[in-house]
């Protein structure tokens, strides 16, 4: 069985990465649009009509524009399947949030959805750590949560890559100090928090990869819990996932290792979760490590496409 897939925004950072993954896909043929008309709405709608799935790799405004136009062609949302990599539809109830590992119901929802919103790279890490602990009653929903993180500069797309290549990007740049980062709403909603987490993103002098941290004091938790109990909960939550795994053999068990490289999973589509604690387990340090362009973007888009097409979720991803 072969499926036609159109990547709207194929020339961008995310679009190119999606294309390179799909080039290895045994069941997919990419529908390419001539460069001269890649921003022409009617040419793009023709492609969308021909495709079994369209992956939007566009800035928010352009994604909203094309999704609105596609809705006009497809009032019942029956024939057209859109997967949007932008932030535009992530908390829109008309769109299914494309994080299949959130729970079994989410995977089923995605399998029957025609409008799928790909998660943000940072929220992928934060939700993966927070949601199981909140749903299990370990972290109270009204907890004050802080999420420090560092990303490779490809996270900022072509514009930030150009800044880096021109030598104009600081080696380590903290940003979104107005506490209004666009990822906060989806992080809060899908983690199950009653209030916004304090999100502290930064970008480092490396191309791809990221670390998303959740520091926790035992006093923030609803119940006393050990690091190994947190580790076991996360391990069991993702036991059926081909793309999320624990990054070490056991809580705090990294054979004495006390550092984590942010770019260790660059070029990959999976995500690793870590649980560290101090000796008396009064402080915990949880971390998700992923590639912002992989599980944080194009890998997740291909995973969602596989689910929407009813084929094995990790096809072309492992
Ligand atoms: N980079 C990352 O790590 C991640 C990015 N994303 C999201 O993916 C989306 C794309 O980001 P990214 O690939 O980084 O951005 P880029 O800037 O690298 O690429 C965007 C692409 O879209 C094209 N484009 C812009 N406007 C239009 C339009 N009206 N019609 C057709 N094409 C258009 C651009 O062309 P041109 O350059 O000629 O204007 C460019 O090729 C964004 O919404 C981003 O938030 C999601 C997860 C991670
Ligand atoms: C380093 C950097 O600038 N990162 C981007 C997020 C990239 C990303 O994955 O966000 P979307 O999926 O929402 O596009 C930012 O903070 O805006």
From TrEMBL:
It catalyses: N-acetyl-L-glutamate 5-semialdehyde + phosphate + NADP(+) = N-acetyl-L-glutamyl 5-phosphate + NADPH + H(+). Residues 4-110 form the Semialdehyde dehydrogenase NAD-binding domain. GO terms for cellular component: cytoplasm. Pathway: Amino-acid biosynthesis; L-arginine biosynthesis; N(2)-acetyl-L-ornithine from L-glutamate: step 3/4. It is found in: Cytoplasm. GO terms for biological process: L-arginine biosynthetic process. CDD domains: AGPR_2_C. The active site is at 121. Its main location: cytoplasm. It comes from the Bacteria. One of its GO terms (molecular function) is N-acetyl-gamma-glutamyl-phosphate reductase activity. Its EC number is 1.2.1.38. Keywords: Amino-acid biosynthesis, Arginine biosynthesis, Cytoplasm, NADP, Oxidoreductase. Catalyzes the NADPH-dependent reduction of N-acetyl-5-glutamyl phosphate to yield N-acetyl-L-glutamate 5-semialdehyde. Belongs to the NAGSA dehydrogenase family. Type 2 subfamily. This is N-acetyl-gamma-glutamyl-phosphate reductase. It comes from Puniceispirillum marinum (strain IMCC1322).
């Amino acid at each position: 069985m072969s499926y036609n897939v159109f990547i709207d925004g194929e020339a961008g950072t995310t679009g190119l990465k999606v294309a390179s993954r799909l080039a290895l896909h045994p069941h997919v043929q990419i529908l390419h649009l001539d460069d001269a008309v890649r921003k022409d709405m009617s040419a793009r709608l023709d492609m969308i009509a021909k495709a079994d799935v369209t992956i939007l790799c566009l800035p928010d405004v352009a994604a909203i524009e094309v999704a609105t136009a596609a809705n006009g062609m497809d009032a019942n949302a029956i024939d057209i399947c859109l997967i949007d990599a932008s932030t535009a539809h992530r908390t829109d109830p008309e769109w299914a949030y494309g994080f299949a590992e959130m729970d079994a119901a989410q995977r089923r929802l995605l399998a029957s959805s025609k409008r799928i919103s790909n998660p943000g790279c940072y929220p992928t890490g934060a939700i993966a750590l927070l949601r199981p602990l909140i749903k299990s009653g370990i972290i109270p929903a009204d907890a004050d949560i802080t999420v420090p993180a560092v990303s490779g500069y490809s996270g900022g797309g072509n514009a930030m890559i150009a800044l880096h290549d021109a030598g104009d990007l600081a080696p380590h740049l903290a940003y979104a100090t107005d506490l209004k980062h666009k990822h906060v709403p989806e992080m809060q909603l899908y983690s199950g928090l009653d209030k916004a987490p304090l999100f502290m993103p930064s970008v480092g002098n490396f191309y791809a990869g990221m670390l998303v941290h959740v520091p926790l004091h035992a006093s923030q938790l609803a119940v006393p819990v050990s690091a190994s109990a947190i580790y076991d909960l996360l391990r069991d939550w993702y036991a059926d996932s081909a793309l999320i795994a624990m990054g070490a053999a056991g809580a705090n068990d990294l054979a004495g290792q006390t550092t984590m490289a942010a770019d260790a999973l660059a070029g990959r589509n999976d995500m690793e979760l870590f649980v560290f604690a101090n000796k008396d387990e009064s402080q915990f340090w949880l971390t998700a490590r992923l590639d912002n362009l992989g599980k944080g973007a194009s890998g997740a888009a291909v995973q969602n496409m596989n689910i929407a097409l009813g084929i094995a979720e990790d096809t072309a991803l492992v």
